[in-house]
Specification:
It is a single chain. The longest helix has 15 residues, at about 155-165. Strand 4, helix 4 and strand 5 (about 110-115) form a beta-alpha-beta unit. This protein has helices at about 15-25, 50-60, 75-80, 100-105, 155-165, 185-190, 210-220, and strands spanning about 5, 30-35, 65-70, 85-90, 110-115, 135-140, 170-175, 195. It has an 8-stranded parallel sheet. The protein is an alpha/beta fold.
């Protein structure tokens, strides 16, 4: 399977979001990464539910990759208009009723992913293989862009990939956090399938977005 890009909209030019969404769609990018934070699970607020919902109207082929960093994520599903074609990642650490939340994502026709933060052990994912389509591994602490990669992240990615492969399940492995030019290829070698690209690669100041997408695609192919 080829590597797939999921550019992070929280790192884009906030005054030109519709233009950048359209450009990425026209470039054949697979996903657009949409971060939602509640200022409780993580100490920040990024894209609001209205913007995440509105993005659906702009996209033609590119799919939404919605990452909910919030307690009680199901409270926001209607406001985001979650449905067919969406990836929806919820955090293992934030859901007391994880089974119900994953089931509701599936019921809406979306693909449930389980997100795990840097301090969470890889082994927790094995209890949920029957309920999910993928795992999102955070290689920085959730909440803010531009952080350095957490020590041990490559070993963790490899461990998650191994657990997936040993299960015989065809689950996707997504990596989110400091997916930089010099690290993304190694992340690919660790088994990552989807790459959340932000301020350390695609959205570096002065880079042409179309050229940056081409370069990243070549690195993670």
């Amino acid at each position: 399977m080829r590597g797939m890009l999921s550019p992070s909209l929280m790192c884009a030019d906030v005054l030109n979001l519709e233009h950048e969404l359209t450009l990425l769609d026209d470039l054949g990018v697979d996903y657009i990464h949409l971060d939602f934070m509640d200022n409780r699970f993580v100490p920040n607020i990024t894209l609001d539910t209205g913007l995440i919902k509105a993005s659906k109207k702009v996209l033609k082929n590119m799919k939404r990759d919605i990452h909910i960093m919030a307690f009680e994520p199901e409270r926001y599903f209607d406001r985001m208009d979650i449905g067919k074609g969406d990836i929806v990642s919820v955090h293992y650490e934030a859901c007391e009723n994880l089974d119900e939340v994953l089931g509701e994502i599936r019921r809406r026709g979306a693909s449930p992913f389980l997100a795990i933060s840097p301090d969470t052990k890889p082994e927790v994912i094995t209890d949920w293989f029957e309920k999910i389509d993928g795992v999102l591994v955070m290689t920085v602490y959730p909440g803010f862009a531009g952080q350095p990669i957490v020590e041990g992240s490559f070993e963790k990615l490899s461990a998650v990939r191994r657990l997936i492969d040993e299960s015989g399940k065809e689950l996707l492995l997504e990596v989110d956090g400091h997916v930089s030019w010099d690290l993304c290829k190694r992340m690919r070698e660790c088994g990552a399938d989807i790459f959340v690209a932000g301020s350390s690669s695609l959205y570096q100041a002065g880079l042409d977005l179309s050229e940056a997408v081409e370069r990243m695609n070549d690195l993670v192919k």
